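Lecture 7 notes: from sequence to structure.
We start with the chain below.
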Amino acid sequence: MWKVTCILALLCVASWYGTAKAQYVLVLKNGRQISVQSYREEGSMIKFSGLGGEIAISKEQVQTIRRAGEGEGLGPPSLAVDRLPSTAAPERPPAPTKSAEVPANVTPPIEEQQAKKRAEEEKAYQDKVKELTQKLKEMRERYSLITRGNSGPEPSFFTTEEAFKGQQADLISRLRDAQYKAQGLPTGSASQSPPFSLNAPPAYTEREKELSDLRARINQVENDRQKLIEEMKAKNFETGSLFLD
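Predicted structure tokens for the same chain:
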């Protein structure tokens, strides 16, 4: 009992002695406060200087440790007695966010370049086939008007003399083509019989020559168009909407 009383007395004296230049305040569980210039921890003890020597008290007796001058309950949260007070780390500025924009000088991935090139090539094929398709439709309509008197897809009866003459011209023009080819002569190339030819076939009339040339152009456009479509199929390009009705 006498020993405990002496320790408490010493603590009171140490508290009074260091108040003027105290840096920390040790708040004990019994409500007493001890002002000290500094302290250190050693095992289960808190040690500080006082009365010309060093005083040690058990951590179990300490409620909290705070800086001197801070009002009770007004300062920062109480310090744990199992570590020394530390200075709060300075706040770091937030890291700059990276922009989602791709710099203009960055080259797109090789896969993206290949896909773009393939799409451009496919569109070029489609545009060319559509151009040939339109041209083919126009020539077929012209041929139908000359030989049948109408441009529809369905066959019709020859109700006019002009339509009848057109059908006759078509049949004779096809016959002339066969005769000229048999002798190795260019079809539809002359309105008169070719010179220097033995047993030359009769010459084309103007209408027969027009039909022969028109058939030749239609066949050429059909072949060019079909060749493009076959190339598109080989490259796995879309061809579903490129066929004629």
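Points to note: Residues 110-148 form the longest helix (39 residues). Helices lie at 2-17, 110-148, 161-182, 206-234.
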